[in-house]
């Protein structure tokens, strides 16, 4: 599939949004373009999701979540999120945290929350502690194959990452806070967005990030830097590229933030070049393989916020969170073709306000978090495989 065709696919998605309003484009209308731009799923099926409006269960202690900026699922299908309590509005949301308190409700929950498969809160932890530097602005939470928790940060001083057990016991800090932006640095990072893992190689892939403009690969035990690269496998540059221009030639460097770098089971790495509205695919050594543009007219925050893989053995489907356009894309991973998308902008279950992070559990269910004023965790139950294409709308239970 050519890059030009992918650009047209992305433009078709955004044109649908602009002309009929977000979420109003039907599956039939999205499948109507000329054959060279249409993506047909008539001969295949896609995962079908519906939101669980009763998951998770209410938090105890009058706790609230602030902007939720990371999610991971462990080997027991327990779901962990990380959020920013400081993002709660002190006057309207966090009266119990005021000095003096202005009411009984509410207060910020601890930064890391753990939910069991039924949606019960079973543990909470996080924040400053002895022996490590808690991020100025925590960002991203990922769980490795040993069920350890990795956390980055995108605050101005956050040039390090942290590793904990799933119960919050500190294991390792890589890098020190307060270091300069340097996409060639071997001993620190530059405002890390997310960490992902290749257990077979014992390597962690760092989306580095909000300051640096690179993918960095480190040893999971020592934190030693092993290799790094920029867009198209180029040597990274910290040059300010200015705002993204949809009419310009594709940028040869990443823009900030580089928001995800997730390895698949077959040795490819999927990188969210968020402001450039693209997913770039690499071999594990940084060799460029392919790319797809998604909604390439999107400005500002960009369209490619996070990715997750379907749980079938081939990881046939790639899910992409688009926080600006408030939806989740379902792509054929091998072809990088958009098959369908679901969601809409709004605050009801199944809608999104800045969908930020996504992950899947062992059953193929999808979990999403929302940042800014979204401040929410949602579960989308995979109900099976079915037909569909284009805009699937809000996946409300029962199809209504």
Explain what you see.
- It is a single chain.
- The protein has 400 residues and is mainly beta.
- The chain has one domain (3-46, 137-394): TolB, C-terminal domain (Neuraminidase, 6 Propeller), CATH 2.120.10.
- The chain has helices at 3-20, 27-30, and strands at 46-51, 63-64, 67-73, 79-84, 107-108, 112-115, 121-125, 138-143, 149-153, 161-164, 170-174, 192-198, 203-208, 214-219, 225-229, 258-263, 268-273, 278-283, 288-293, 306-309, 317-322, 327-332, 337-342, 355-360, 366-370, 376-386, 390-391.
- Strands 20-21-22-23-27 form a five-stranded mixed β-sheet.
- The longest helix has 18 residues, at 3-20.
Keywords, separated by commas or semicolons:
400 residues, mainly beta, Neuraminidase, 4-stranded antiparallel beta sheet, 2 helices, 27 strands, 6% helix, globular
């Amino acid at each position: 599939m050519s890059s030009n065709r992918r650009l047209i696919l992305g433009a078709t998605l955004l044109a649908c949004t602009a002309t009929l309003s977000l979420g109003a484009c039907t599956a039939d209308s999205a499948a109507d373009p000329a054959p060279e731009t249409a993506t047909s799923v008539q001969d295949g099926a896609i995962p079908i999701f519906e939101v669980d409006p009763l998951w998770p269960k209410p938090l105890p202690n009058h706790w609230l979540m602030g902007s939720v900026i990371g999610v991971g699922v462990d080997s027991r299908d327990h779901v962990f999120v990380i959020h920013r309590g400081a993002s709660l509005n002190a006057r309207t949301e966090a009266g119990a945290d005021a000095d003096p308190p202005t009411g009984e409700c509410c207060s910020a929950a601890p930064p890391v929350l753990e939910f069991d498969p039924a949606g019960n809160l079973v543990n909470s932890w996080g924040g400053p502690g002895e022996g490590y530097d808690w991020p100025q602005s925590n960002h991203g939470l990922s769980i490795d194959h040993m069920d350890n928790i990795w956390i980055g940060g995108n605050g101005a001083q956050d040039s390090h990452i942290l590793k904990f057990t799933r119960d919050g016991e500190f294991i390792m800090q890589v890098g020190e806070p307060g270091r300069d932006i340097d996409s060639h640095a071997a001993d620190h990072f530059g405002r890390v967005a997310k960490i992902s893992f290749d257990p077979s190689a014992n390597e962690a892939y760092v989306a580095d990030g909000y300051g640096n403009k690179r993918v960095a690969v480190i040893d999971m035990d020592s934190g030693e830097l092993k290799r790094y690269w920029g867009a198209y496998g180029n040597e990274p540059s910290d040059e300010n590229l200015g705002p993204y221009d949809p009419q310009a030639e594709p940028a040869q460097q990443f823009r900030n933030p580089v928001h995800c770098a997730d390895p698949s089971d077959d040795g490819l790495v999927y990188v969210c070049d968020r402001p450039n509205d693209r997913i770039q695919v690499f071999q594990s050594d940084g060799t460029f393989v392919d790319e797809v543009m998604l909604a390439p007219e999107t400005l500002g925050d960009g369209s490619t916020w996070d990715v997750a893989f379907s749980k079938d053995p081939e990881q046939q489907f790639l899910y992409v969170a688009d926080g600006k356009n408030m939806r989740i894309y379902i792509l054929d991973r091998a072809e990088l073709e958009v098959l369908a998308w679901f969601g809409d902008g709004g605050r009801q279950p199944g809608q999104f306000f800045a969908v930020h992070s996504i992950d899947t559990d062992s059953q193929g269910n999808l979990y999403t978090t929302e940042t800014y004023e979204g401040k929410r965790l949602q579960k989308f139950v995979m109900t099976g495989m079915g037909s569909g294409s284009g805009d699937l709308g809000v996946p409300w239970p029962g199809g209504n």
